[in-house]
């Protein structure tokens, strides 16, 4: 049917305003979704900074604890080093003492050997003198026969005994000296053995200290490495925080820009509504002035808008599950003005009721869009992959008007379905 007069003027206003308002709403929604995404990202970044700062605090505490342990280990190492130095000095002294003992023992052995040789010489001399004395004694017997006087004979015997006594005493003296040297040697050997035993113990204790010191040095090296790793981690976290702060600054700038765009769109919407209202009032005045029925059909394109009235009862445009309800906050601070139905990519989208297409094209964040007037109701179909109808085309209830595409944000095949009563947005579920 063809609508004329005041109804045609109102319909013209709706036909001109709804696509613009839907486009503006789509841009605002898109910006709000991005702002919500930015806010989430900024919050995540701030939480990450807080987490990093906490980790830095923990690493600093761990580092301080490790440093305290390192200081304690170094103290123990220094203490062990002092003990080691004392043992090392004692070990050197013992080695020197053992060397002196060995020197004394060698000297004693040399003296004993010399005494043995001297004793042998003296014994040989003694034996020689004994033999000589025997010869003298035999000669004396012979001389008795030859009439040797007794006085001379006695003197010779006395001299022989004296010489033998001297020789015996000399041998005894040498043997006494040798015995003393042997006793000294035994004493020195005992001292040497004692020194060697102590040196062995000192060396064992020194080696134990050396091993302990090595273990402590290994522990210190391991802890120093851990401290270095903690410092590297702290530097890494600080750099990461700086990067995050820069990213947050960029996100804040983008958020300010998007909010400014939203405010500009709202101002433009208000101006547009004022312009449309003036156009409507002007058209009404012109119609009233003309007073002629032949000029009642008003259309900017000079094409009459043939509106096919709907039944007032809507059907689901696609089979699927409603994943976003009317008024639901899809993202924080942004309520949905329609519903979203999850379908399959390329699925046929049907007209919810009989009516006339008043818009067919692209609308920002909603992608390809079809808007159908059913008289008092207007339905909006967004996220279409393809469109099968054109403006001013009459459509039947259930007729395919396009195919389902993807949501620009979620990338899922969801149909955006909006219902307006006049220019007022209403809950689609009240009519389905």
Automatic annotation (TrEMBL):
Q: What name does the UniProt record give this protein?
A: M23ase beta-sheet core domain-containing protein
Please list the GO terms describing molecular function. Answer: metalloendopeptidase activity
* Superkingdom of source: Bacteria
What single Pfam family name could you report for this chain, choosing any that match? Peptidase_M23
List keywords of the entry alphabetically. Coiled coil, Signal
Q: What CDD domains does the annotation carry?
A: M23_peptidase
What region holds the M23ase beta-sheet core domain? 336-428
Q: Which InterPro entries match?
A: Cell_wall_metabolism_enzyme (IPR050570), Dup_hybrid_motif (IPR011055), M23ase_b-sheet_dom (IPR016047)
User: Where is the secretion signal located?
Assistant: 1-22
Coiled-coil residues are 63-97, 199-268
